[in-house]
Amino acid sequence: MDLKSLIRDVPDFPKPGILFRDLTTLLQNQAGLRYVIDQLVEKHANAGIDYVAGIESRGFIFGAPLAYRLGAGFIPLRKPGKLCAPVYAVEYELEYGRDRLEMHQDAIEPGRRVLIVDDLIATGGTAAAAAGLIQKAQAELYGFAFIVELTDLAGRQKLPDVPITTLVTY
Predict the structure, then answer these.
(1) The whole model's pTM is what?
(2) I need a surface site. Which of 32, 99, 129, 168 has the fewest CB within 10 A?
(3) What is the set of domains in the chain, with CATH numbers?
């Protein structure tokens, strides 16, 4: 399936000079959404994944059905202040400032195998922070799964040496 044909390009969003890859059009397409989840399941079905950790917010959209299909639990990796119990937190650099990801401290037992999922990898900062959360929990980072990779931004170079799955590259 040609996933690129299901992804809308939005020029100058969120600011001039940026070409935004809008996956909402992919999500609206029943066959496209099914194909994405089926592809991710096929690539990770035999990996012994205990948990899928989805990065807020579009990682939730793809991560939860993937976890269900893999027979794994789902862990939301949230922006600051969204979780109600004690958290692990990792700060990371943005183009203009800093941000933080958080995860409940009791979300993952040490040694459990985790796949991190997000819709897109660009510079890799958010995904690297997500990996830091898994490390703080003393769990095993199995790998990453992204629908889209923006290769010019070299985000995968910031990530640990684990399997990285992408379905579409630009």
Answers:
(1) 0.96
(2) 99
(3) 47-169 (3.40.50.2020)
